[in-house]
C-alpha cells in the first residue's frame, strides 16, 4: 500500500544562519542557499500531490533583527517572487501568503500580488508563505474582526465558537496542517500556526534548512505514516475505560 501523502505540510525553516557560520560565511549566504531548498521541496510536494505547503518565511518577531539583514531579506523575497514564477507555472502550483502583509515594503507587496494572480488558475499544490506572520498576532486580528462584527450588531457574543474563529483567520479555507516539520533540531513552535496545528503531527530533524532536500521530506512523510492519529478518540479495537 503506498504511503499516505499529508494534505497539508507546514515547515519551520530553521538553520540558515548556522549553515553559513559553519562555512565561515555571512548569515545572508545561508538565506540565499535556503532558496534552493524551497524550490526543491515545493516541486517535490507538487509531484507527490500534497494539497498545501506552508513555509514559515518571515515572522513578526523577525522585524527585531538588524535593519541591514531585514533589507537583505526583503530584497531576496522580491527576487524570489519574480524568479520562481516559472517554478509555480511549470508545476501547476497556486500561490498565497498569510500574515500582516501590510507591513511588507510596497514593492514586495506588488510582486506578491502579481505572483498570486499569475498562478491563480493553476490547480495543483498551493504554496503559501507565512510573511510577517505570528500565530498570536493572527488570533489577535481574528478577535478584533469578531469584535467589530459584534459592535456592528452582525454577530452575538454567544455565537462566537470555534467555527467563527476559524472563519476569521488569515486563510479561513486553509486545511489544518497534518504534518509540521522543523529543521535544525529545534523543539519549539516559534509562534507558528498556533490555532491550526492542534492535531498536527510533528517531525524534527537535525538537518539545517539549506541542506534539506527531497529525501529528507520523504523521511518525514514516512515517519508521519507510522503515527496513529486519533484526534482525541480511541483506536477501533480499544475499549472504553468504563
Would you give an account of this structure?
The chain has a single domain, classed as Decaprenyl diphosphate synthase-like (Undecaprenyl pyrophosphate synthetase). Helix 2 runs parallel beside helix 3 and helix 3 packs parallel to helix 5. The chain has a six-stranded parallel sheet, sandwiched between helices. The radius of gyration is 19 Å and the shape is globular. With 242 residues, the protein is an alpha/beta fold. 41% of the residues lie in helices and 14% in strands.
How are the secondary structure elements laid out?
Layout: E1 8-12, H1 16-21, H2 27-48, E2 52-59, H3 67-83, H4 85-90, E3 94-98, H5 106-118, E4 126-133, H6 135-151, H7 162-167, E5 179-182, E6 201-204, H8 214-225
Parallel strand pairs: 1-2, 1-5, 2-4, 3-4, 5-6
Give a quick set of tags describing it.
242 residues, alpha/beta, Undecaprenyl pyrophosphate synthetase, 6-stranded parallel sheet, 8 helices, globular
Helix content: 40-55%
> Separation of termini?
36 Å
Instruction: Say which CATH homologous superfamily is assigned.
Output: Decaprenyl diphosphate synthase-like
User: Counting H and I runs of at least 4 residues, what is the number of helices?
Assistant: 8
Architecture, according to CATH?
3-Layer(aba) Sandwich
Please outline the major beta sheet.
6 strands, parallel
Q: Strand portion, in percent?
A: 5-15%
CATH level 3 topology: Undecaprenyl pyrophosphate synthetase
| Dominant shape | globular
- The SS-based structural class is alpha/beta
Q: Please mark out the parts with pLDDT under 50 across 5 or more consecutive residues, or reply none.
A: none
Strand elements, count: 6
Mean pLDDT level = 94
Radius of gyration: 19 Å
